[in-house]
Amino acid sequence: xxxxxxLESLGTFRVGVLQPSRSIEVTSFAVEKSAPIKRDRPxxxxxxxxxxxxxxxxxxxxxxxxxxxYAIPQCMAYxxxxxxxxxxxxxxILPAMVxxxxxxxSPQLSVGPESTTAVMAAAAIAPLAxxxxxxxxxxxxxxAVMVGLIxxxxxxxxxxxxxxxxxxxxLIGYMAGVALIMMAGxxxxxxxxxxxxxxxxxxxxxxxxxxxxxxxxTLLLASFVLGFLLAVQxxxxxxxxxxxxxxxxxxxxxxxGLDRQGIAIVGTIPAGLPxxxxxxxxxxxxxxxxxxxxGIAIVGxxxxxxxxxxFAARNHYKIDANQxxxxxxxxxxxxxxxxxxxxxxxxxxxxxxxxxxxQSQLFSLFALVVILAVLLFLRPVLALFPTAALGAIVIxxxxxxxxxxxxxxxxxxxxxxFALAIATAIGVLVTxxxxxxxxxxxxxxxxxxxxxxxxxxxxxxxVPGLEGLHDVKDWQGAIALPGxxxxxxxxxxxxxxxxxxxxxxxxxxxxxxxxxxxxxxxVLNAEAIAEVDITALDMLSAFHEELQxxxxxxxxxxxxxxxxxxxxxxxxxxxxxxxxxxxTLPTAVRAFQGREIAATESEGD
Length: 605
Fold this sequence. Notes:
This protein is of the alpha/beta class. It has helices spanning 45-50, 57-81, 86-103, 115-125, 136-156, 168-184, 187-191, 200-209, 216-235, 241-256, 283-315, 321-337, 347-355, 362-382, 387-399, 404-413, 415-430, 433-453, 498-514, 534-549, 561-570, 572-576, 585-604, and strands at residues 13-17, 25-29, 111-112, 344-345, 457-463, 466-471, 484-489, 521-525, 553-557, 581-582. It has two domains: 56-274 and 285-447, no CATH class; 455-604, Transcription Regulator spoIIAA, CATH 3.30.750.24.
């Protein structure tokens, strides 16, 4: 997304243009003052709500109703997954919706109970709970509070920059992997089969092995709902297809008694609201819960920021990764004080909201109102909703997350980035989400390091009929200046590429000498070298000494101020000589040509 830079006012300014072997031309430009350009900055939830646009209302209402219809049975299931009563899943989403709507930077993210954090919470609490389970809910609430405090601490320490490790290929692959996980998780719902497996490969294999157990009325209903959703999207893309599917499926159950024919429905929804309470904790549970809370915070935040950034990229807005730490931390604190368990973001609920037109966090507040109304008054209506239709809606939403054109674009641009996206998707599928993302980040770092360690380099020369200096490999008829090598290395110098630089620079010298030319000067174009580390400084010192032994003068051009200071502090500047540091490439060329003139005049005397 293009980011416009705001300029409150522009006056008259001058621009200097440097050209080889020419005097500096200075041109004046008069620029009229104009209105400031607004920066495309992330906006927090309450900022966006205060500047709400009426055009968003329809999409937010539809998204809120649809997400609520999906969230109620889903959160109940996640409550059971966390080892708690199903109603605890509904309690956990209530404070999260309000808090994230006010503090979150994503207008579309749905925060609340999520399968990965629910499973991790259950694994951490089960060994610590009493055999009777009397303290289970209290341990879960304490764990949520700990996760919240860790995330808030990360916000204070401004650790949100870690999200920058998540590149675009990782986002594309992550969303594809999550989509496949979502679809595999619905196989049991759409087929009427009981699938106990938890990973995608095992779920698919269990489904294939027990095809004879398919409940055909359930599968037909799910197929009809999915076909209906795809057809409406194709013909009427702005229609509330998911909401229509919810209403039609519920009406079909009520009219034809489909539940009596073996089609599963959501069923009884428990009533009641949570009570505000301060969770208690024994000293012996503190250490194990703290370790578990750290892991859940890392996984929950990774899932949160990945999902938020993926939808931000799809819909052309920005999020604030550090603000997401605060929003997630505050949401977990609220959940903990209302007898819940650790939470994160839900890719499936976010995808449903996006598919039905969510524009701001008002959709979460609408969903909250619906969930409260259901808990208090409307439980019998939603109880008739068939779970097969629920699975079809989730599959429909998941299909929107697999961006085939983006995979094609990565393939055309760079094969390694395509491979990174595929590796992320596979990693998310065959491991868990956190390990898959960690592997993808490691591969991304390796790919970056490989490009830094072996960057593009060039010997610069003149091109007939073209001003300036250019890569002699790129232009037919281009030649390096006799006796002078101007060498460009397109990466910062560091321990990873120091020896690579030295070898390739010497190769450039030897290539000129093999042509029968004597190299007298070697000038490093340092425009891509903002700074160096001590390994690179030692290499430059050794390189300078080797050139001296071969009677070649070493110089540097376009040296930035920070790099100049590092050369000075290391003592290398004194050895090179300040007269060998040139502000521009034309300056270096004129100095070399001036040496030849001086030598000619000396011979004449």
